[in-house]
Design a protein that fits this description.
Helix content is 75%, strand content 0%. It has 7 helices and no strands.
Length: 195
């Protein structure tokens, strides 16, 4: 068995050596094919699948945002002065995140729907990606705001810590939504500072 295998390898190597020039000439005249393993066979199916997966993840993000909003309202009720003002802004901003994403919460299209109007559904996907990116940036700012409030109010620290964890979960779900939609998280552009 080993001898047969070695003989087979020797034949293949000998055969490759004699046709190297011909193979190189063929390769030189043909364009290099793009890798096809990661490309979808059908663009309609790919967009439909991205929307189906993305809208499923979007629903999870909306649930997380709703939980964060409930927690923020509870903290707002028991707060006073500067904290009450800050929590009012946090509540408004979380609510705005939910409203932005809720605009995209719909049933996914069928493949036939996408075939009939591919541009419409691909635009829907891209618009959702943009709005999820905006929501993700907003949630990061909200997390920073909540983090800045924890030291000022020891009596509410547990509730604020829970709120921060819920905002983290919403961010994770929003990132999952982006990934499912075939989008990429936009990193904040840094503004150059003058010397």
């Amino acid at each position: 068995m080993r001898i047969a295998a070695l003989l087979w390898v020797a034949i293949v190597v000998a055969g490759c050596g004699s046709s190297t020039k011909v193979a190189q000439a063929d390769v030189a005249t043909q364009p290099t094919p793009a890798p096809t393993a990661s490309l979808p066979a059908d663009a309609n199916e790919a967009v439909r699948e991205q929307l189906r997966s993305g809208l499923f993840q979007l629903s999870a993000a909306l649930d997380s945002i709703q939980e964060a909003l409930k927690q923020a309202k509870e903290i707002q009720k028991g707060s006073k002065g500067r904290l009450k003002e800050a929590m009012s802004e946090v509540v408004d901003r979380i609510d705005s995140c939910g409203s932005t994403l809720a605009d995209h919460n719909s049933d996914p299209p069928t493949v036939d729907d996408v075939k009939k109007d591919f541009a419409k559904f691909d635009d829907q996907r891209l618009k959702t990606v943009d709005d999820v990116n905006d929501t993700l940036s907003e949630l990061k700012e909200i997390k920073g705001m909540v983090g800045g409030l924890t030291g000022d109010t020891p009596e509410l620290e547990d509730k604020l810590t829970r709120l921060a964890a819920l905002v983290d979960q919403a961010m994770e779900d929003a990132s999952g939504t982006l990934l499912a939609l075939g989008g990429k998280e936009q990193l904040p552009t840094s503004v150059p500072t003058s010397p």
